[in-house]
Design goal:
Alpha/beta knot, five-stranded parallel β-sheet, about 15% strand, binds S-adenosylmethionine, 11 helices, Trp Operon Repressor, Chain A, 2 domains, alpha/beta, about 270 residues
């Protein structure tokens, strides 16, 4: 996969993408990341990338010309082919107004050959970029950042760890929080494992078995695989119920899971 990042702060990416799995994915040749300095696509002495908004109001807005020129220099497939899915490319504008970036979106992007991430700044980006240049707008959460750089780094990290081979043990990315096994969900055969299937992850423990008087839960020490599976599944259900009940609706739940949830709900006074 190739990831192109368009930004007015190219140095920002010297740190975040040079560690851990993102670095590994690049070293293994699974991914290539290219950072484009938007100012290189300006034509005035001051390398101007922003201007005042029409209609008045606060702040400055990123101008369309450098962004269009920058993306045109990348020899991407035409936008209509990208949007129709005829090519495995996507141009993404990072924006607080975008659709929510989720694990599902990360998994979709991980199937592509090329993603282009456009980082906004100031009050945002001339809307013609969203309407005619980008294929989609993505938001990493319901809060406002000062620029799209953090959001681009988050997106790249979440996508690259899903590239086959990027994480040493691939099964671990299939059983994490938010991950849904589509086959299990559609066949109703959920919960063949203790894995996520749309729930939050179950709790993890490591040595020592007792730390400052706090012992690791007995079930995990039992060596009984079925007991461990059930314990993990129930803790994942409890944690999801407590912290993110909204996820239960989309999760792949077995009859056993549903009964357990009824028990938790009934236990609430
Ligand atoms: N005026 C905009 C609004 O109220 O929606 C906020 C602009 S923000 C200060 C500047 C840039 O930061 C945006 O153009 C976008 O690229 C980025 N940004 C801010 N919040 C973001 C979020 N939650 N997800 C992705 N990008 C974000």
């Amino acid at each position: 996969m190739k990831a192109d990042i368009v930004t007015i702060f190219p140095d920002f990416f010297r740190g975040p993408l040079q560690h851990g799995i993102t670095r590994r994915a690049q070293e293994m040749g699974l991914a290539k990341i290219q950072v484009h300095d938007l100012r290189e696509f300006t034509h005035d002495r001051h390398r101007t990338v922003d201007d005042r908004p029409f209609g008045g109001g606060e702040g400055m807005v990123l101008k369309p010309e450098p962004l269009f020129e920058c993306l045109e220099s990348m020899a991407l497939a035409p936008r209509e082919d990208r949007v129709a899915g005829r090519v495995k490319q996507s141009v993404i504008l990072l924006s607080a107004q975008g659709q929510r970036f989720t694990q599902k979106v990360a998994a979709e992007l991980a199937l592509l050959d090329r993603i282009v991430l456009v980082c906004g700044r100031y009050e945002g980006v001339d809307e013609r970029v969203a309407d005619f240049l980008a294929d989609r707008e993505l938001s990493i959460g319901d809060y406002v950042l000062s620029g799209g750089e953090m959001a681009a780094a988050v997106t790249v990290e979440a996508v690259m760890r899903l590239l086959p081979g990027a994480v040493g043990n691939e099964a671990s990315t299939q059983q994490e929080s938010f991950t849904i096994d589509v086959k299990a969900k559609s066949s109703g055969a959920a919960d063949s494992t203790c894995g996520s299937n749309g729930l939050l992850d179950y709790p993890h423990y490591t040595r020592p078995a007792e730390f400052r008087g706090i012992a690791v839960p007995e079930a995990l020490m039992s060596g009984n695989h079925e007991e461990i599976r059930r314990w993990r599944r129930q803790r994942a259900l409890e944690k999801t119920f407590r912290n993110r009940p909204d996820l239960l609706e989309g999760a792949a739940l077995s009859e056993e899971d549903r009964k357990f949830l009824v028990g938790i709900r009934n236990a609430i006074p």
